[in-house]
Amino acid sequence: DGELALYIQYESQGDLSVDGVEFEDGENLITNIDIISGPEGSAFIPAGEAFASTFSADAIATGSAFSINEGVYFIRGNFVTVNTETIILSQYSNTPTGRVGLKILEETINSDEDANLTDNSKGFNNFAAPGADRLKISCRLAFKGIDDFNDNDFVELASVRNGNLVTKTTTPEYNLIADELARRTFDESGDYITKPFTIKATALSSSIPLCWQ
Protein backbone atom coordinates (compact mmCIF):
# COMPACT_ATOMS: atom_id res chain seq x y z
CA ASP A 1 0.00 0.00 0.00
CA GLY A 2 3.07 2.28 -0.13
CA GLU A 3 3.08 3.04 3.60
CA LEU A 4 6.46 2.81 5.34
CA ALA A 5 7.38 2.97 9.01
CA LEU A 6 10.40 5.16 9.83
CA TYR A 7 12.03 4.51 13.20
CA ILE A 8 13.90 7.52 14.52
CA GLN A 9 15.40 9.01 17.66
CA TYR A 10 14.74 12.72 18.16
CA GLU A 11 17.90 14.81 18.60
CA SER A 12 16.77 18.39 17.99
CA GLN A 13 13.82 20.50 16.89
CA GLY A 14 13.81 22.49 13.64
CA ASP A 15 11.68 25.42 14.76
CA LEU A 16 12.06 26.28 18.44
CA SER A 17 8.94 28.46 18.29
CA VAL A 18 6.78 25.43 17.67
CA ASP A 19 5.45 23.60 20.73
CA GLY A 20 6.40 19.95 20.97
CA VAL A 21 9.27 18.03 19.45
CA GLU A 22 7.36 15.27 17.66
CA PHE A 23 6.19 15.16 14.08
CA GLU A 24 2.61 16.22 13.49
CA ASP A 25 -0.14 14.58 11.47
CA GLY A 26 0.21 15.42 7.77
CA GLU A 27 3.61 17.07 8.22
CA ASN A 28 6.03 17.17 5.30
CA LEU A 29 9.48 15.67 5.92
CA ILE A 30 12.27 17.75 4.41
CA THR A 31 15.85 16.65 3.87
CA ASN A 32 18.71 19.02 4.69
CA ILE A 33 21.17 17.18 2.43
CA ASP A 34 20.94 15.81 -1.10
CA ILE A 35 19.59 12.26 -1.28
CA ILE A 36 21.83 10.53 -3.82
CA SER A 37 20.59 7.72 -6.04
CA GLY A 38 21.68 5.89 -9.18
CA PRO A 39 25.07 4.77 -10.51
CA GLU A 40 26.04 8.33 -11.49
CA GLY A 41 25.52 9.64 -7.96
CA SER A 42 23.02 12.31 -8.99
CA ALA A 43 20.74 14.02 -6.48
CA PHE A 44 17.48 12.07 -6.44
CA ILE A 45 15.93 14.53 -3.97
CA PRO A 46 17.70 17.90 -3.57
CA ALA A 47 18.27 19.40 -0.14
CA GLY A 48 15.40 21.53 1.09
CA GLU A 49 12.68 19.55 -0.65
CA ALA A 50 10.08 17.30 0.91
CA PHE A 51 10.59 13.57 0.35
CA ALA A 52 7.59 12.21 2.30
CA SER A 53 4.71 13.20 4.55
CA THR A 54 3.32 11.68 7.72
CA PHE A 55 -0.13 10.12 8.03
CA SER A 56 -3.04 12.50 8.18
CA ALA A 57 -4.11 10.92 11.48
CA ASP A 58 -2.26 8.98 14.21
CA ALA A 59 1.10 9.60 12.55
CA ILE A 60 3.14 9.10 15.70
CA ALA A 61 3.50 5.81 17.60
CA THR A 62 6.13 4.14 19.76
CA GLY A 63 7.33 0.74 18.60
CA SER A 64 9.52 -1.85 20.28
CA ALA A 65 12.54 -3.87 19.20
CA PHE A 66 15.01 -6.43 20.54
CA SER A 67 18.73 -6.53 19.70
CA ILE A 68 21.67 -8.87 20.28
CA ASN A 69 25.37 -8.42 19.67
CA GLU A 70 27.61 -10.81 17.79
CA GLY A 71 28.54 -13.86 19.84
CA VAL A 72 28.99 -17.63 19.89
CA TYR A 73 26.24 -19.94 21.12
CA PHE A 74 26.49 -23.67 21.88
CA ILE A 75 23.65 -25.12 19.82
CA ARG A 76 23.02 -28.80 19.06
CA GLY A 77 26.54 -29.81 20.00
CA ASN A 78 28.19 -27.13 17.88
CA PHE A 79 29.62 -23.67 18.43
CA VAL A 80 27.52 -21.36 16.23
CA THR A 81 28.41 -17.74 15.47
CA VAL A 82 25.41 -15.42 15.74
CA ASN A 83 25.62 -12.02 14.07
CA THR A 84 24.48 -8.67 15.46
CA GLU A 85 20.78 -8.35 14.72
CA THR A 86 17.69 -6.31 15.62
CA ILE A 87 14.12 -7.55 15.32
CA ILE A 88 10.92 -5.49 15.51
CA LEU A 89 8.61 -6.85 18.21
CA SER A 90 5.74 -4.46 17.47
CA GLN A 91 5.64 -1.66 14.90
CA TYR A 92 3.26 0.66 16.71
CA SER A 93 3.18 -0.53 20.33
CA ASN A 94 5.66 -0.64 23.20
CA THR A 95 3.68 -3.24 25.17
CA PRO A 96 4.18 -6.47 23.19
CA THR A 97 3.92 -9.94 24.70
CA GLY A 98 5.81 -12.96 23.45
CA ARG A 99 9.03 -14.97 23.47
CA VAL A 100 12.26 -13.79 21.86
CA GLY A 101 14.94 -16.24 20.80
CA LEU A 102 17.06 -17.76 18.07
CA LYS A 103 15.43 -19.57 15.17
CA ILE A 104 17.69 -22.49 14.18
CA LEU A 105 18.17 -23.19 10.49
CA GLU A 106 19.94 -26.35 9.31
CA GLU A 107 21.16 -26.66 5.73
CA THR A 108 23.14 -29.22 3.76
CA ILE A 109 25.86 -27.55 1.71
CA ASN A 110 27.51 -29.45 -1.14
CA SER A 111 30.32 -28.70 -3.56
CA ASP A 112 27.88 -27.26 -6.11
CA GLU A 113 27.15 -24.42 -3.68
CA ASP A 114 30.65 -24.10 -2.19
CA ALA A 115 33.59 -24.95 -4.45
CA ASN A 116 35.87 -25.23 -1.40
CA LEU A 117 34.22 -28.59 -0.65
CA THR A 118 35.63 -30.31 -3.72
CA ASP A 119 38.43 -32.83 -3.19
CA ASN A 120 41.97 -31.55 -3.46
CA SER A 121 44.23 -32.65 -6.27
CA LYS A 122 47.91 -31.70 -5.95
CA GLY A 123 47.06 -28.77 -3.72
CA PHE A 124 44.20 -27.46 -5.89
CA ASN A 125 40.45 -27.98 -5.78
CA ASN A 126 39.45 -30.69 -8.23
CA PHE A 127 36.11 -29.56 -9.62
CA ALA A 128 35.54 -32.98 -11.19
CA ALA A 129 35.62 -34.67 -7.77
CA PRO A 130 32.81 -33.56 -5.45
CA GLY A 131 33.75 -33.63 -1.77
CA ALA A 132 31.72 -34.52 1.27
CA ASP A 133 28.62 -32.48 2.09
CA ARG A 134 28.58 -30.25 5.17
CA LEU A 135 25.90 -29.46 7.73
CA LYS A 136 25.49 -25.71 8.13
CA ILE A 137 23.76 -24.37 11.26
CA SER A 138 22.74 -20.72 11.35
CA CYS A 139 20.52 -18.68 13.65
CA ARG A 140 18.44 -15.55 13.40
CA LEU A 141 16.30 -13.63 15.85
CA ALA A 142 12.62 -14.59 16.02
CA PHE A 143 9.57 -13.50 18.02
CA LYS A 144 6.78 -15.96 18.80
CA GLY A 145 3.69 -16.23 20.96
CA ILE A 146 4.05 -16.40 24.72
CA ASP A 147 2.22 -19.75 24.79
CA ASP A 148 4.02 -21.26 21.80
CA PHE A 149 6.35 -23.89 23.29
CA ASN A 150 7.20 -25.73 20.07
CA ASP A 151 10.96 -25.29 20.54
CA ASN A 152 12.31 -27.95 18.18
CA ASP A 153 14.09 -25.23 16.21
CA PHE A 154 13.97 -22.37 18.73
CA VAL A 155 16.20 -21.30 21.63
CA GLU A 156 14.58 -18.81 24.00
CA LEU A 157 16.67 -15.81 25.05
CA ALA A 158 14.04 -13.75 26.86
CA SER A 159 10.32 -13.19 27.14
CA VAL A 160 8.33 -9.96 26.99
CA ARG A 161 5.10 -9.41 28.91
CA ASN A 162 3.19 -6.21 28.24
CA GLY A 163 6.44 -4.52 27.28
CA ASN A 164 8.41 -5.71 30.31
CA LEU A 165 11.52 -7.69 29.42
CA VAL A 166 12.10 -10.87 31.42
CA THR A 167 15.56 -12.29 30.81
CA LYS A 168 15.72 -16.06 30.75
CA THR A 169 17.87 -17.14 33.71
CA THR A 170 19.96 -20.20 33.05
CA THR A 171 22.79 -21.91 34.88
CA PRO A 172 25.81 -22.27 32.57
CA GLU A 173 26.54 -25.92 31.93
CA TYR A 174 30.28 -25.64 31.48
CA ASN A 175 30.67 -29.39 31.62
CA LEU A 176 28.87 -29.65 28.26
CA ILE A 177 31.53 -27.48 26.66
CA ALA A 178 34.26 -29.55 28.33
CA ASP A 179 32.65 -32.73 27.03
CA GLU A 180 32.53 -31.27 23.51
CA LEU A 181 36.21 -30.30 23.65
CA ALA A 182 37.08 -33.78 24.93
CA ARG A 183 35.11 -35.37 22.09
CA ARG A 184 36.91 -33.30 19.46
CA THR A 185 40.29 -34.08 21.02
CA PHE A 186 39.47 -37.80 20.95
CA ASP A 187 38.40 -37.58 17.28
CA GLU A 188 41.70 -35.93 16.47
CA SER A 189 44.18 -37.78 18.69
CA GLY A 190 42.45 -40.90 19.97
CA ASP A 191 43.53 -42.50 23.25
CA TYR A 192 46.80 -41.41 24.81
CA ILE A 193 48.33 -40.85 28.21
CA THR A 194 49.76 -37.67 29.69
CA LYS A 195 51.64 -39.41 32.55
CA PRO A 196 53.80 -42.48 31.87
CA PHE A 197 53.10 -45.74 33.64
CA THR A 198 55.58 -46.74 36.35
CA ILE A 199 56.68 -50.32 36.90
CA LYS A 200 57.93 -51.52 40.25
CA ALA A 201 59.42 -55.00 40.64
CA THR A 202 59.03 -56.66 44.05
CA ALA A 203 60.88 -59.86 45.05
CA LEU A 204 58.62 -62.55 46.49
CA SER A 205 59.83 -65.38 48.76
CA SER A 206 58.88 -68.91 47.77
CA SER A 207 58.69 -72.20 49.66
CA ILE A 208 58.87 -75.80 48.53
CA PRO A 209 56.32 -78.17 50.06
CA LEU A 210 57.66 -81.38 51.59
CA CYS A 211 56.00 -84.73 51.12
CA TRP A 212 56.41 -87.43 53.83
CA GLN A 213 56.42 -91.11 52.89
Blueprint of the fold:
Layout: E1 28-30, E2 35-37, E3 42-45, E4 50-53, E5 64-68, E6 71-75, E7 78-82, E8 85-90, E9 98-109, E10 120-121, E11 124-125, E12 134-144, E13 154-161, E14 164-167, H1 174-189
Antiparallel strand pairs: 1-4, 2-3, 5-8, 6-7, 9-12, 9-13, 10-11, 13-14
Question: Can you characterise this structure?
Answer:
It is a single chain. The chain is mainly beta. The strands form six sheets. The chain has a four-stranded antiparallel β-sheet with strand order 12-9-13-14, with no helix packed on it. The chain has a two-stranded antiparallel ribbon with strand order 1-4. Strands 2-3 form a two-stranded antiparallel ribbon. Strand 10 (120-121) and strand 11 (124-125) form a beta hairpin. It has one helix spanning 174-189, and strands at residues 28-30, 35-37, 42-45, 50-53, 64-68, 71-75, 78-82, 85-90, 98-109, 120-121, 124-125, 134-144, 154-161, 164-167. It is elongated, with a radius of gyration of 32 Å. The chain contains one helix and 14 strands, in the order E-E-E-E-E-E-E-E-E-E-E-E-E-E-H. Helix content is 8%, strand content 35%.
Features:
two-stranded antiparallel sheet; mainly beta; 213 residues
**Main sheet overview:** 4 strands, antiparallel
Helix content: under 10%
Principal-axis shape: elongated
What fraction of residues sit in β-strands? 25-35%
Termini Cα gap: 120 Å
| Strands, total number | 14
| Integer average pLDDT | 79
Spatial extent as radius of gyration: 32 Å
Oligomer: single chain
Uncertain spans: none
Helix/strand/pairing class, anyone? mainly beta
Order of helices and strands: EEEEEEEEEEEEEEH
Helical region count? 1
- The strand order across the widest sheet is 12-9-13-14
